[in-house]
Please model this.
Amino acid sequence: MRTFLLPLLLVLSLGSLTAAPVVGAPGLIRINSTIQTYSVSQPWERNTPTKRRGLGAVLSDLRILTTAEMVADTIYIELESADGTRTAPAKVLAVDYEANLALVTPIELDQSAWVKKIKPLETNGPVDIDGTLDIWQLEDNGNAIRTVGTVRSVDQLSSFIAGYYFLSYEVKGSMQSASSSYTLPATRDGKLVGILTSYNSKDQMSDVLAPEIVALFLADVADGDYVGFPSLGVATVLTEDPQFRAYLGLTDDHGGLYVSRVLPGSSAEAAGLKEKDVLLSFDGKPVDRRGYYDDDRYGRLFWTNLIRGKKKVGDSVKLKILRDGKTMTVTAILQRRVDPLIPNHIHDKPPTYLIKGGIVFQDLSRPYLKAFGKEWESRAPLGLLDALRNPEDYEEGRNRLVFLSRVVATPATIGYDRIASQIVTKVNGRPIEDMNSLAEAFKHPVDGLHTIEIDDVPYVLYLDATQSDAVDQQLIKSGLPELQRLPE
Amino acid sequence: MKFPLLILSGLILHALPATAQAPAPAPAADPFGLTPDTPAAPANAADIYRSVVRIEVSTQVADYRTPWNSGRFGGGTGSGFLIGPNRFLTNAHVVSNARRILINERGSSVKHPAKVVYVAHDCDLAILEVEDAAPFAGLSHLDFGDVPQLESQVRVIGYPVGGDRISVTRGVVSRIDFRPYSHSQVDSHLVVQIDAAINPGNSGGPVLQNNKVVGVAFQGLRQADNTGYMIPTPVIRRFLKDVEDGEYDHYVDLGATEFALFNPAMRRALQLPDNGIGVMVASVTPEGPCDKILQAGDVLLSIDGKPIDNAGNIDVDGEQVVLHEIVERKFEGDTVELEFQRAGEKKKATITLTAFPAARIFALCYGERPRFVFFCGLTFQPLDLNLYATYQFSDPRVRKTYQNYVKDTIFKEREDVVILTRVESDALTTYIGGYAGKMVDEINGVKVTSLKHAHELLYAEKQPEFITIKCEGISRPIIVPSAEVAAANKRIMQTSGIYQPANLEAPSSDSR
Model:
């Protein structure tokens, strides 16, 4: 499994033998996005907007397929004709950040007659290894550029959100610099196969999301509410180590994945899976000691494809496991993954916060910690990093991890200025399980005082209830839009 | 080959509120109860020069990355001076990790073998004696003065780099402050900053005023010119008094930290009037002197009768100093009187001060062979500052355990925090090489409480078929089949050049 992302489409090489201009290529449309994220340290503010230009594949019923990267955190999405003469504002129909797929459609149908004239692409099935596909770009004048690429290998890659791996083709083909090249449709025989998510100009390799993933995404959207890809909800460890295998009682003809954690509330927990179980097979497909199974089409693939690449929420999977030296079979009904205590990503939802008397509270997310820079894993506050790495020690009594992120100097916070990044346990005697319970707790000061309990020195802070309300009003006057933004 | 002057990184946190000049110390006590035939303090410069000696040290510095190895051999020079019959005062860092110490008298090339009598790493001071005191018999014993006044002039005498003969520089006292002592990396005491050049080799030499010693030159500042630091006489006198009974007992500690009570709402919650008096107890060291007497949230009102202000400062002879200055001057077994308030009620307590050995995990250890246990390609070492500085652990659990070792009472259940520091290459360890740098939690299901305990568990005579080692942050146990232990140990020790399977010798109490 690849663990890092290639730089996205820095196409430097000039023309190639396989590229030839094609006028009137089918189903291509330009997408221009304006992206504006929120400030991590001052969550009431938005950062400076950035623009991103990519392509979409026009499907039937005015649905346009593109990557989640093109629509995440956008404040405006615009469709543009290949020749650049027409535009139409668009909205998101569905988005899957983890799989990096999105569907958009024009907002005003009467303004988008030109979109209707684009001949929609049909979808195609899988391509075998060594098969070819066409990757499409657009020149400024609207001509399409076709690059023929060869599928070199198939792997599970994560392209937008680190840690979520989806079946992808690794395609060899030399592409050139062209406008709107952020995401590119790939076709075979004029039918859509997948979406190119990244290109490395050095080795001329592209990652193209596989048609199986596109099909699962489209099917999920088609049946109404978009649910997302299923998850078993286990953390596993490989069983290559012969000493470890002997200890587990795994014979040499077995593979096996050691279950190191069963996430609470997950499909695996409901199925009765336990820590220390060894997963031997999924629906009769044995997994080897490194977690690979033999895929009928693509050869060796990591076991997660048996869940994410083949199933939908509500499907079941039959698991053969080894427990205490005995094999047994359990059936798991697959669910959507459980929301972790500390979310891995937040998109299109403004970060929540609450300010009281100048003290800023937020709920912890991985993006918050990553904002500490490249060296965030050593530079971010230790207490918060520990919670990210060992969430099981913090999960009890919490839906989210609420922490005191910083203290704005106000008359109410004299003497508190240096306190930051502390996990909040109680406010006014009430345990804090999420931002909503924090907001509720602040409604109940005792004897005119708010009592805030945190998990490190000085362990407790007090605010004068009347004074902090007055201070908060001054913060509003000085330009703070709202004192709190709570989860919906 | 000059002994490097200790250099402050400049990034050391200013942990305590700055204090102004410390009060003048108690009247100059005779540091050793010196015998009546002690030569009188010298009146002229030549006599003083003769009493300042050059100290040549050969060192062996332990390598915590390969704890079975001998470490690096090296050496350097520093300065020292005669303070009593066959008693030379110098810095602890001059003689730390010493294998051989030689003392040179001014104008003589004879090298006199010497040894350390007392060493105090927490205040960077040491006393040496020579094997044969006769050649030094006629020399003057330097006398101690008080803390010099700001802007007054001082002389620094010693044997710094740049030549072989004695060197004298002059400067004025620029600042008197409570600052970190870089030798142990964790202690802070009174320091006097002077603008005389203090260079490598000056360490341990006297700083004089009116022919009396007012300090020992000991550290500089890398990114600033003309800033030298000396250990002033209150710290020196405390050290000399501490060792009078024949051993060094270390500084004592109150075992409580404070949080300044500037916030009016906080004062109201703690039922305090708005009079600027009282500092909140932020934490109490478990099993420390104040344990079970104070608790977090109490408000300290006075110490030894001196009112404590809302920042934790007290007034001593018209100077504002942190309340810990009272404790700084005291010794093991001494008491302080505390007045405090809990839930609006005033209370009094007498606290018996003690040193707190568990907290020395945060101090560098000198002159000891590193402790370790080797087992089938795995090296286990106890967590302390030396190890931490060597490996720069990135695992948040290891970092958090270290940081909270005292605060969260981890020392009570784990005398040592045992870290799996190395995994040697071998067929047995092919798949566990990435597990180094994690903290050992259990061996064979038993919680590991110390390195010695880990050794007992790993090398127990009766073992289960599979020895299981569970580490924090590794999601599966490390397995060693007990049938393979003997052969694997022999094989890996031989190929990796490890001649000794463990060093469990407890470090001596004056190693940090």
